[in-house]
Every structure is written in structure tokens, then in C-alpha cells.
Amino acid sequence: MVKIAHKTFFDMGWEKYLTVLFLLLGIGFFSSGSVTWVAANWDYLSKFQKLYATQGLLGLTTVSAVFFYIKEAKRLPKARLKFISASFFFASAVLIGTLFALIGQIYQTGADPWQLFALWSILQIPLLLILPNIGSVLLLMLTLNVTVVLYGVYHNDFMPEFLIGLNFLLLVIIEFTSDFFHDKHWRVLSKCANLALAFSLMAWIVDEISVSYMGQSVSGFSCLVFGGLIWVYKKYRNDLFPLIVHFIGLIVSLDISILSRDFFDIKKIAT
């Protein structure tokens, strides 16, 4: 049984480090393999074989997660991360999405892909609240972002503002709940949320420049956002990574704000 008694991987002995590393790799390969298995759409398996196999895997991982959670809860403090059960709950969350994809593949339900990802995201939340962990939060962040993007694509009305609002909300939640998600020391979730927000702002600038004359105003607003985030992280958080990300975003936004006017002047002349 793996017992994680240290705050970070760097404090572990090599035996425990390798054990945890291979457990993470195993869960990752198992989860990605289940998705690939559905994507392969093997013709020699009937639809019922596919459905029962996927449901069986989902049931097996969920039962395993509950079993290991009970064992870990008896020997670990309440505030400690139950690593093995959290890994199985993560696999269960992935298999939920895999099952939805399989149902859509077999029965051709006609549902838009964004609806699948939205439902998948909603069903991840109970598992995340039962056993909060970094991997499950990252999966939820990914599926929520994909939901917003696919909604815009399939309705021909992609609005990066919604993506910015989503990632800003996720960033605020993560910063105030890092202890709950066992991410106080590594701050993986904060780094990913800051990257997602920065890319969302850049996507907004590019979208506005390509279709309208609002690029300069949008880039100016982005400068204010990046500048504000730099001030917040410098004052309240001892984390260099967000400062670097938002400083780069600030420089890019300033460049675009300065150059966008010349770009549209040239465009006017050309037309």
C-alpha cells in the first residue's frame, strides 16, 4: 500500500517516489486507453459488448475508489490526501465521459458535442466534492473550457468573453480553495488557471482584431487585467510563475495596442 507521508515528491525516498510516479502513469494510461478504445470504434464488438464493457470498467473503478477510500480514511488524517482512492475517482470521472461518447457513437443521439461535455462536467462535481484532488480539478477545468468553445463553434457565435469569465472565476475559486484541493504547496491548479486565463485574453484580442476595429480597446483592457493580476500576485502570493505569465501577456497586449492602429490604417489604404 502506498503511504504518502511527505508534503512534496522532493521529500520522498526514491522507492516511494517511483511507486507514486508509476501509479500516476498507470492511471493516466488507463484513462487515455479507455478513451482510445471508444474512439477506435471496433466493428467486431457489438454495441452491447462495448456498453457493458465500459459500464463494467466504470463500476470497477468506482468500487475500487470507495474500497481504497475506506482503507485510507482509517489510517490517514482527515486533512490528508487519499492518493490511491483519488486516482481511482479520477479514472471514474474520465470513464463517465467515455460512456457518454460511446452512447452518442452507437445511438447517434443528435446531441451537440458541447452538451456532452457540459453534462460530463456536471457529473464530475460530486466526485470532486467527495474526494478533492488536483487531477480531477484539472479534468473539470478542461471539460468546462471545451464546453464553452464547442458551444460557440456550433452556434457560430464564439465569444472569448465567456471563456475569460469562466477562467477568471475558476482562478478565483482555486486561489481560495487550494487547501481543500491539496494544492497548497505545488500550486499546480493556480498555474494552469493563470495560463488558461492568459490564453483566453490573447484569443479575445486576436478575435477582435481579425473581425473589427475594437482590437486596440480590447488589448488596452487586457493590459489592465494583466497589470492588476501582476499587482495581486506580487502583493498577496509568493508565486513567480503567474507573474511571468501575466508579464508576458502585458507586453504582448501593449505591443498589440500600439500596432493595431497602424494595422487598420494599412488595411484602410489597401481597401
> Could you list the spans in which at least 5 consecutive residues all have pLDDT below 50?
1-7, 266-270
Order of helices and strands: HHHHHHHHH
Shape: flat
For this entry, what is the oligomeric state of its chains? single chain
Strand content: under 5%
Structural class: mainly alpha
Into how many domains do the coordinates divide? 2
Total DSSP E strands: 0
Main sheet, how many strands, which sense, barrel? none
What's the mean pLDDT score?
Answer: 84
Radius of gyration computed on alpha carbons? 22 Å
Q: Approximately how much helix is present in the residues?
A: over 70%
Brief overview:
The chain is an all-alpha fold. Helix content is about 80%, strand content about 0%.
Give an account of the 3D structure:
With 271 residues, the chain is mainly alpha-helical. It folds into two domains: 132 residues, no CATH class; 113 residues. Helices cover 79% and strands 0% of the residues. It is built from nine helices and no strands. Helix 5 packs parallel to helix 7, helix 6 packs antiparallel against helix 7 and helix 7 runs antiparallel to helix 8. The radius of gyration is 22 Å and the shape is flat.
Keywords:
79% helix; 271 residues; 2 domains; mainly alpha
Secondary-structure blueprint of this entry?
Layout: H1 14-40, H2 47-75, H3 83-107, H4 113-130, H5 134-154, H6 160-176, H7 188-211, H8 215-236, H9 240-270
Helix pairs in contact: 1-3, 2-3, 3-4, 4-5, 5-6, 5-7, 6-7, 7-8, 7-9, 8-9
